[in-house]
Amino acid sequence: MIGRPHVHLHTVGSTNDHARGLAEAGAPHGTIVTARQQTAGRGRQGRSWTSPPGVLPLSLVLRDVTSELLPLTIAVAVAEVCGESARIKWPNDIWLGDGQKVAGILIEARPPANWLVAGVGINATVGPPGAAVLGEPGPSLLPRLITSLDRALRLQDDEILATWRSRDALLGREIRFRASGSDGESVGVACGVDSRGRLLVDRGGGVIDALLAGEVHLTAVG
Q1: What SS3 state is found at 81?
Q2: Strand, coil or helix: 82
Q3: Which of 22, 29, 72, 129 has its CA 20 to 30 A from that of 4?
Q4: Domain regions of the chain by residue span
């Protein structure tokens, strides 16, 4: 059962860091950490993610989860909570409207440990300039998020892929990307994800790249 035990903190540097400490100490699968305020949260590529009151940060301890589609699974769960119009920008953002971020996801593991931590941040009633806000207080949002995560983690891979693809924010859009180790950027058209959750990009001339989340930076250009 996701959400048991539940550790709630008034203020914390990072719910992910706190959850990782609990996991190292033996916290069971499904443990969650939430906070009224997060002062030193992280996004991908080391970006900061501060969470003042009004933003819901949640970190979830998962054990013995090996699916390559876990990032897509968490995104599907969060998007469901954010409503029918929510779209998923590969690999880890949830959008309302065209490019207005309402939620972000960060999954961290420490091999060879048998656990990982999935962090979620949702702009419940406040958000940074230019971002979307869901307009629902965190305390009422939290039970729905826990239920959605629990349900998504029970889905089969084909169900996850189908749901994710129905919410793909980049499908058919021209994007600019820089692969890890590359000296320059490439441009192509996003054409969905493959069975492993990799972003497919058509660069023309029959060339289709399959990109891993840790290897690229994306900027939508059209």
Answers
A1: helix
A2: helix
A3: 72
A4: 6-166, 174-220
CA dist 170 → 195, 196, 206 (Å): 17, 17, 20
What does pTM read for this prediction? Answer: 0.92
Give, in words, the CATH class of 6-166: alpha beta
Q: Distance between CA atoms of 19 and 14, rounded to whole angstroms?
A: 9
71 three-state secondary structure: helix
Domain 6-166 and domain 174-220, same fold? Reply is no
In angstroms, the CA 147 to CA 1 distance is 9
User: Which tens digit of pLDDT belongs to each residue from 126-184?
Assistant: 998 989 999 999 999 999 999 999 999 999 999 999 999 999 999 999 988 876 666 77
The CATH number fitting domain 174-220, selected from 1.10.10.60, 2.60.40.10, 3.20.20.70, 2.30.30.100: 2.30.30.100
